[in-house]
Amino acid sequence: MADSLSRTLARFSHALDYEALPPQVVDKIKASLLHQLIIAIIGADTTRGRAAIEFAKTEEPKADGATILVDGARATRSGAVFVNSKLMHTTNQSDSYRMLIHPGACVIPAGLASAELTGASGRELLTALVLGYELEARIAGDFIPSTQARGFRSSPVYGTLGAAITTGKIIGLTEDEVVTSLALAATFTGGTTEGARAGGNEMMFHEPNSTRSGVTAALLARENVKGSEYALEGDAGFYHAFTGNNQGKLSYVFTGPLETSVAAVAEDLGQRWEIMHVTPKIYQTAGYNCPVIELMTQIRARHDLAPAEVEKITVDMNWLETLYPSPAFPNTQRSAPGVGSTHYFAAYTCVHGSYPPLKPRINPGEPTPADDQLVMKLIDKVEIIGHQDRPAFAPRITIRMTGGTTYQGEFQGNELEWDFATETQRITALFDDMDWPTHKLQGIVEAVSNLEDALRVDPLIQLCVRD
After folding, report:
1. Among 67, 167, 304, 340, which residue carries the largest CB count within 10 Å?
2. What is the C-alpha end-to-end distance of the chain, expressed in Å?
């Protein structure tokens, strides 16, 4: 009988070491780590970020615990990962895989806390983070839209497993214990899309709670307890619960047939790396808006057009990007022209030539900024069209002017899959506008760049603590 999916993933997880990681994979995880650390610093200055810090300091202080980023106080491992995840998630600038999961907000806080508490080296942290990203992305994969269609938000559902895998690697779980940690994580996970559908804010706590649950799953796996061998693909297991069946039949897909294979999750482990398709979000908005902003910025840089003379803007996107969080439960405020919609970000960037990465996140339906009347007029000239044969993060923008001239640009879908050099260039451009010592920000860049040489991760963490 073939090994279970959990067994196959656990065997890979237990055996993987730093020397087996291709250089481009190490480079990619460094890009993600750098991104999430800087975003955590930005998030700490928000109302929700400050509230998360105070929550952990009040409810879960622990003098010899893990470090709360930015603040520097210590908390229980669970408390620290909760607040650090919140800091990385609250501005909506975490990273994305297939639009709807955000592994960085779960995997990186889990890895940092356990690496700090166990005295792990930089190489050990990098290896654990790669594992968390890679296996979370594989388990999620083609199943993401089907999970959303069940009324569950994919990011926390799969993020719990990513946090468990990362923690398990750092604390040295055996192969059997990794199997158990996956079974426990599959039991502990959750998070519904009702807030995303109807405008509630509970999703702000999804990733933080999933990170806490994933860490707990890994720690409990060290007890003398046996997890279900087929916790993922069993008849009443994870895939049945969160996708509707365990045969790979899909409710929705970004593109392609409505069917996949559970066995494909583990195909080519160590050869094909899904982590390479993670995209950081530099702008404080939903992931699917980021390539629209980026492409419009490029078009405006190439052409000296007058926004007041724009007759129509057409944005062709993947169909699921126009029906967030799911075609089964669409949020009509997000899909209709208005502040916070894709129409808004296309219009704003067309008018101003760019969109400020540090501009506070704008939720659909919020009041109109008084100084953006030209943007508001242009919103009504923006048409968003969804296509089932168009990849995610691959918009095509067509701008038609009143005189008949047309400008166009198009992405293929991989333009935002930045390496470390590109991430460094883009994130350091924010440093002058951040309330943080520039030398410490540059120190974070240098420490992440050379993390494989670090005997411990504590110096990197301390660079992320306010003086």
Report:
1. 167
2. 57
Domain with CATH 1.10.4100.10 in the chain: 5-278+418-463
Tokens found for residue 440: 């410490």
| Strands (E) located in 215-365 | 279-280, 310-318
Q: Which helix (H) or strand (E) holds 385?
A: strand 382-387
Q: HSE of 57 in the Cβ direction (CA atoms, 13 Å)?
A: 13
pTM of the model: 0.97
Q: Give the residue from 416, 386, 410 showing the smallest Cα distance to 290.
A: 416
Within 8 A by CB and 6+ apart from 410, the residues are: 295, 394, 395, 396, 397
Classify the phi-psi angles of 23: left when phi > 0, otherwise alpha if psi is within -120 to 50, otherwise beta: alpha
Structure confidence at residue 334 (pLDDT): 87
**What are the tens digits of pLDDT across the range 295-340?**
999 999 999 999 999 999 999 999 999 999 999 999 988 889 999 9
The pLDDT value recorded for residue 157 is 98
For residue 237 the two structure tokens come to 């297991």
Class of domain 289-410: alpha beta
Interval 54-86: pLDDT, tens: 999 999 999 999 999 999 999 999 999 999 999
Q: DSSP secondary structure string, 143-168?
A: GHHHHHHTTB-HHHHHHHHHHHHHHH
> CB–CB of 110/215 below 8 Å?
yes
CB 299 within 8 A of CB 397: yes
